[in-house]
């Protein structure tokens, strides 16, 4: 089961996370929604094992992924 997921993080956290996901070879895009101070990492077609990996990396911010579904 593959699905698109996204995680919203602060700019401070983004640099830490970016270092970790660059080594993973996962495809992603980074977005900032107008009027928002956080940025969003969007991962297309993530498998269950990849999602678990991302959930661990994003830690407490992974709760945002629940609302991030198939946008």
Short description:
It is built from two helices and three strands; from the N terminus they run E-H-E-E-H. It has 71 residues and is an alpha+beta fold. Strands 1-3-2 form a three-stranded antiparallel sheet.
Outline the structure in words.
This protein is globular. It starts with a strand and ends in a 13-residue tail after the last helix. It has 71 residues and is an alpha+beta fold. Mean pLDDT is 83; it is low at 66-71. It has helices spanning 11-22, 48-58, and strands at 3-9, 29-31, 39-46. A three-stranded antiparallel β-sheet has the order 1-3-2. It is built from two helices and three strands.
Topology:
Elements: E1 3-9, H1 11-22, E2 29-31, E3 39-46, H2 48-58
Antiparallel strand pairs: 1-3, 2-3
Tell me the number of helical segments per DSSP (H or I, 4 or more residues long).
Answer: 2
Gyration radius from CA atoms, angstroms? 11 Å
Strand line-up across the major sheet: 1-3-2
Proportion of helical residues: 25-40%
Residue-averaged pLDDT = 83
Number of strands: 3
Strand content: 25-35%
The ordered H/E elements are EHEEH
End-to-end distance: 16 Å
Note the main sheet: 3 strands, antiparallel
Low-pLDDT segments, ≥5 res? 66-71
Structural class call reads: alpha+beta
Shape: globular
Q: What keyword list fits this structure?
A:
single chain, 71 residues, alpha+beta, 2 helices
